[in-house]
Amino acid sequence: MSYGRPPNVESSPGKAPLLGSFPLDHDGECKISMKEYVKCLKENKSNNGLCREFSQAYLQCRMDK
């Protein structure tokens, strides 16, 4: 079954992100921001809207490193 696309069209494989575009935090430089964000999510039943400031701080830390 094609589920919405013509049956003769093959899906194209996804492209991997550019190497190093968002590196892993191997050195734990953003660990404090990450823990604050996760703690907020746990306290607010995974409601990201209530933890937006922690999310932004964590992602900003990741982009800066």
UniProtKB/TrEMBL annotation:
It holds the Pfam family CHCH. Required for the assembly of mitochondrial cytochrome c oxidase. The lineage of its organism: Eukaryota, Fungi, Fungi incertae sedis, Mucoromycota, Mucoromycotina. The keyword S-adenosyl-L-methionine does not apply. It comes from Thamnidium elegans. Residues 1-20 are annotated as: Disordered. Belongs to the COX19 family. It comes from the Eukaryota. It is found in: Cytoplasm. The keyword Cytoplasm applies. One of its GO terms (cellular component) is mitochondrial intermembrane space. This is Cytochrome c oxidase assembly protein COX19. GO terms for biological process: mitochondrial respiratory chain complex IV assembly. Keywords: Cytoplasm, Disulfide bond. Residues 30-63 form the CHCH domain.
